Amino acid sequence: MKISAHWLGNNISYADALAIQKTKQAEVISGESPDTLLSLEHAPIYTIGRTRDKSSLIDPSLLPHPHIEISRGGQATYHGPGQLVGYLIIDLKKRGKDLHKFIHAIEHALILTCREFNVNASTKNGLTGVWVGNKKLASIGVGVKKWVSMHGFGINITQESLAGFKHITPCGIQGVAMTNISHEAKKEITTAQFAQAAQPKLESVLSNLK
C-alpha cells in the first residue's frame, strides 16, 4: 500500500496540523486523495482524548504550555520539539475495519524502525504504545470518521522531547518513565531521519491489514 507522505516541518501549531488533517481526511473519504502520512514536530502542547477523567493533566492551570481536548482516544500526552508526530489518514474500509489491528500495526512499524537505529523496542502487555523495557518511547491514539483514520503517533527522538512530560501523568500511567530514541541509540538522531525510515515500514505493515 503506497502512502502519500508529507514532511510538514518543525514548530507546527496544533491548530494548523489539525486543519490539514481534516482536509486530508475529507479528501480520502471522497476518494480525491490517497492514504496519507503527515510527519512533523509540534510547537509545545498537551492533548487529551474525549474522556470525563482529566486527572492525567494533574492541574491544567499549572501546565507550562496550552492544552486541548481532541477526538482521539486516551489520556493526556505532550507534543513538542524533538518528538516526531505522525498523522495517519488511512482508509480502513480497505484494511479490515479493525482499530485494534490498526493500532498494533502502527506499533509494529515503529518497532521495526527502531531496530534500524539499534534500539530494541517492544510492546507492553495491556498498554498501548512502544516501549524500551519499562520506559515509554511512543504513544498512539487514533480516531475515525467513516472508517478513515486521523491522529496517529508521537515518538520521542531527542532529549528535548521529554521536558513537557514531567508536568502530566503521561497516558494516565502512574510512575511511567519516558525515554527517547537518541538516548537509547547512544547517538543523536533527528525527527526527519526517523520519519524517513518509518515511512516504508508503515507502508509495508499497513499493506498487510485485511
CATH class: Alpha Beta
Biggest sheet character: 8 strands, mixed
Strand content: 25-35%
Question: Could you estimate the helical fraction of the residues in percent?
Answer: 25-40%
Number of continuous helical runs: 4
Proper CATH architecture: 2-Layer Sandwich
Approximate shape: globular
Secondary-structure element order, N to C: EHEEEEEHEEEEEHH
What is the name of the CATH topology? BirA Bifunctional Protein, domain 2
Terminal CA distance reads 12 Å
Assembly annotation: single chain
Count of β-strands: 11
Task: Name the poorly predicted regions.
Answer: none
Structural class: alpha/beta
Query: For the CA atoms, what is the radius of gyration?
Result: 16 Å
The count of domains is 1
Fourth-level CATH superfamily: Bira Bifunctional Protein, Domain 2
Average pLDDT metric = 94
Secondary structure: elements and pairs:
Blueprint: E1 4-12, H1 14-30, E2 36-42, E3 45-48, E4 67-69, E5 77-79, E6 83-89, H2 99-116, E7 122-124, E8 127-132, E9 135-145, E10 148-156, E11 177-178, H3 181-185, H4 191-207
Parallel strand pairs: 1-2, 3-4, 9-11
Antiparallel strand pairs: 2-6, 3-5, 6-10, 7-8, 8-9, 9-10
Helix pairs in contact: 2-4
